[in-house]
User: What shape does this take?
Amino acid sequence: AQSVTQLGSHVSVSEGALFLLRCNYSSSVPPYLFWYVQYPNQGLQLLLKYTSAATLVKGINGFEAEFKKSETSFHLTKPSAHMSDAAEYFCAVILLIGSSNTGKLIFGQGTTLQVKP
Amino acid sequence: DAGVIQSPRHEVTEMGQEVTLRCKPISGHNSLFWYRQTMMRGLELLIYFNNNVPIDDSGMPEDRFSAKMPNASFSTLKIQPSEPRDSAVYFCASSLTSTGGVSPLHFGNGTRLTVT
Assistant: This one.
C-alpha cells in the first residue's frame, strides 16, 4: 500500500532562514508525489509535484523538493522563509485510477510551519 | 477559471438534522473527490467519482453519508441524520483524467460543518 509520513507536526523557523519539511513515502511502484499548502480557513493549494521526470522539482513561490529514491524521501525546502509562509503543509502520494493519469491522494498528517520575526 | 466552488462555507445544524453540502468542479474536469478534515484524523477521502460514476466509496463512514453526482458540473454530499462527530471541514476537489501527465487535484475552500 502507498503512504506518506511527515516527520514533525510543528516546525518553527525565523524569518529569512532556510527551512525543510520532511516527507517519507512507502510505495511498491514508482510514486507520484505532491506538496500542498493550506492557509487558515482555505482549501489546499498545490505547491509542486514529482512525476518521475527531474528529481529536483521547483514549485511556486520559491519552494523546491528533491525526490530521493534511496532514502524514500521527498522533503520540501525554501531558502528564505517569509511571514506569509506560515501555514500547514501536506505531503501526498497519488493512487492512480487504473491506467489513467489521476486518482485519489493519500495525505500525510501535515506539518504546521511557524515563522518568527 | 473560477476554481472548485463549494457551498455553503459554514453550516451549523442540530443533531438529527439533514445536511447537504454542494460542489461545483472546475469546468472540464471529469474526476471529483470528497474529503473530510479533522484534527484527529487529518484528511480522509470519503468518495470519488470519475465521469459522474462513483468509483470508490470505501471511505464513507456509514450509511448516514451519501453522495451524488447527477451531472459533470455538480455534486452533493448528504448526511442524514447528522451527529456531533460529523463536525469537520469537508473539501471537494476535482481533476482532469486524460492521456497526458499526472493530473493533480484542485481543491475548493471547504465547508466547515458544526453539528451541535
User: Anything to note?
Assistant: Chain A touches chain B through 25 residues (CB under 8 Å). Residues 23 and 54 of chain A are 18 Å apart (CA to CA). The mean pLDDT of chain A is 91. The first strand of chain A starts at residue 3 and ends at 5.
